[in-house]
Design goal:
Elements lengths: L1 E5 L4 E4 L4 E3 L5 E3 L8 E5 L3 E6 L2 E5 L2 E3 L10 E3 L2 E3 L5
Antiparallel strand pairs: 1-7, 2-6, 2-10, 3-9, 4-8, 5-6
Length: about 90
């Protein structure tokens, strides 16, 4: 499964804040694959990686059985406006 975030102009997302979770009977997400971000110095977090424009996260799903079903997943992220507060 792939998740794509489109980031508004003038904003960015923190790479380490992108997360997925879920604990349903149909499928559970595995550890996501996230590409490297752009290095940035953040006055609160120090050296971080961020994304401008967009980012795509690949998420493997472990299926409980081969039957079709719906899985509910929760996504987490944190973004900020450039030169402003988060």
């Amino acid at each position: 499964m792939a998740v794509t975030w489109t980031v508004a102009p003038g904003y960015y997302l923190y790479r380490d804040s992108l997360k997925v979770s879920g604990d349903g009977p149909v499928a559970q997400p595995g550890p996501p694959t996230i590409p490297p971000g752009t290095p940035k110095w953040d006055e609160h977090f120090g050296d971080v990686e961020v994304f401008y424009g967009s980012v795509r996260m690949e998420v493997p799903l472990a299926r409980a059985n081969p039957k079709a079903g719906t899985a509910e997943l929760q996504l987490a992220f944190q973004g900020c406006k450039e030169n402003s507060i988060c």
